[in-house]
Each structure stands twice: as C-alpha cells, then as structure tokens.
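User: We ran a pulldown and think these components assemble together. Before we commit to crystallization trials, I'd like a predicted model of the whole complex to look at. Sequences follow.
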Amino acid sequence: MHRFANPTRFMRLSRVAMPWVTVLACAALLAGLWLALGRSPPDYQQGEAVRIMYVHVPSAWMALFIYASMAAAAAAGFIWRHPLADVYARAAAPIGAGFTLVCLATGSLWGQPMWGTWWAWDARMTSVLLLFFLYLGYIALAEAFDDPSRGGRAGAILLLAGVVNLPIIKFSVDWWNTLHQPASVLRIDGPAIHASMLVPLLMMALAFKAYFVALVLLRMQTRLAAQKAQSLLLASALDEEAASGQTSVEHI
Amino acid sequence: MMGRYDVFILASYGIALAVMAGLLLVSLWRWRKAQRRLKTLRAPLPPDGSAAGFARTRRHGDRGAEPSAGVTPLAGQSDMVAFAAAYIVTRPTNEDDRPAQGSGGDQNYGGTNGSSDGSFDGGDSGGGDSGGGDGGGGGGGD
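Assistant: Here's a predicted model for the assembly, 394 residues in total across the polymer chains.
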C-alpha cells in the first residue's frame, strides 16, 4: 500500500488502469442488464419483482464496501499519514452516498408491491438510512473547514466512529426479528439462491464494483490536479515576487 | 403490455442508472475543469506577466486598498485563491513598511507629527500625539 503513497506514482498507475476498468464496467453492466432483465427467471413468490434485487443488493454491498474502505483510509491517514488517504475518502464519499441512495430507493420500490409499504422502521432499513446520513455528514464536515487538512481529520474521526454501524447493518437481520429477509448470498453455508439468479446478481455486482473503481480513480485524479494547480499558483506568485524584487515575502 | 410490477422495475433501474450517470457526468465535468486549469497554469508566462492569473496588485508602500484589488482570477479560479496569492505577494513585512512615525516617538508607530527639537511643539513633550507613542523627550521649547 505504501508503494502507492506517492501521488505521482498513483497518477501514472491510475492512468493505465482507468481505461481497462472502464471497459470492464461497461461490459459487465451491459451483460448484467441483459441477464437481469432478459435471462433470469421470475421468482416463484415474488414474480418479476425479483429483478429489482439485481440492483438493490449490489448497491447495498457497494454502500457497505465503500464506507468500510473509507474508514480504512481514515485509519491509514491517522496511522501512517498516507498522503492519498484523505484524497480517497473525499473522492469515494459521494459515490458511496449515491449507492446508498439507490439501495434505499430500490428497496422502497420493492417493498411497496411485496410488503405493501414503502418504508418501515425496521432495523436493517433504519441502519442503512443512518449510513446514508453518515455519508452526507462526512461530506459536509470534510468541506466545512477552510483548512483542508483539518476538514480531513474531522471527517476521518466521523468515519471511524461510524464503523460501528456496519456490523449492525450486516447482522441486524440475525440479531432482531426484522421485516427485511435474512442474508441469502453471503452466508456461511453458501448462497441460498439458484444459479440462474446468482449469476446476474454477481454480474451486476462486478459492474458496480468496476464502475466505482473507475469513478474513484477519476475523482482522485481531479482532486490531485486541483491540489497541483493550487501549489502552482502559489509558486508562481513567489516567482513573480522574486522577479520584481520590490516587495519581500516572509511567510508562505 | 406492462406487467404488474414493471413500473417498479423500470423505476428501480432508472433511478440506479440515473444516479450512476449523474455521478459520472459531474465527475467528468470537474475533472475536465481541473485539467484545463492545470494546463493554463502550466503555460509559460508572457513577458509582462499579464496572464499569470494574479496580476500584481500593490507595490511597496501602497496601502489602503484591499489585498485582492487589481487581481484578475483565471477562469475557474476562485476569488479566495486569487486573494491568497495576492496576499502572499503583497504582505508587508519590512521595517520600512511600517506606518510613518513621528520623529519624536521612537517606541511606537502611531505618532504622526511629533517633533523633538522643540522648535514647534513648545513644552508639550513633543512625541507622537495620535497613535499612542509617548514620544521622546520633547525638548524645552522657548
């Protein structure tokens, strides 16, 4: 991980990786949509509404994965002062919030025909809603300071504190008697759904994962370019100052 | 013909794809903006420095204006960045940059018209009289 701590090296590697990841994301998304909407059979209980699961479940996985990775980056930033940790967390946060929003919206759209309600204050749904607020809170907090490093540290503390919500989301369906059904894929004794539904689900999960990697690389490049522009601007100011020789600069 | 759940299915996929496309478009737009700005800043300066993005603002001893006065931000450059650059360029730090002081007040900067030779001030202790400054001895006056 420390090999990629150098932003210049990271930029070089990300430029190489991004086209491949983008192609993978597009191909997997097309294949996933084709499998999910055209090839997978209807469920014997849910009927055609089961197709909502192919976007709902992968987006829920991504919401959890992105938050966990942001918290890991926050920890790395605190422990090793990794220069890209804050950049990663800031770049990933809006994507994680987007996936959490998709998860909540598609869950609601599935709940209305299946449960007869758009929303219930169920442990799983409430904890995912809390995750969405954690994302929004992080974005707001990290941008609330004039000094970006202070904003990054404050946001990192919030990220680390919010980690406690992840096991609650995952195990809420086991710990409490909830309306939401228990896990059917990520189980100790293996997936409980048929391969004809598992394949499109995993294909959509791959598409979402590749999409996330491509987008977070793009957003990290953007942030690093903005930082570079800022330092160029200040360096130019100093150069001009030195060239003029009429005023002096003591502090930078 | 639409099935019973087709509206919900279409809405689910529509929301998911719209959110993903929206994030992608916003990210691409910001990436393009950042690249353009970086390219502008890396371009060589013309001899007069007019395209530097922060035209020189104040010269030595030129006070009274806002630090950002005369700054022309680049396209996409925030006023705050231009302000910061201008502030760094123009921040007075030399001894000579201090406000004018009365010749009689040798410890403070505020004196405006002090005189210690006694020729004008009579016996009023001579020192700076408006900015603090207790002034130097003042001289006797006649």
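The two ends of chain A are 32 Å apart (CA to CA). That may be worth checking against your pulldown data before setting up trials.

User: Thanks, that helps.
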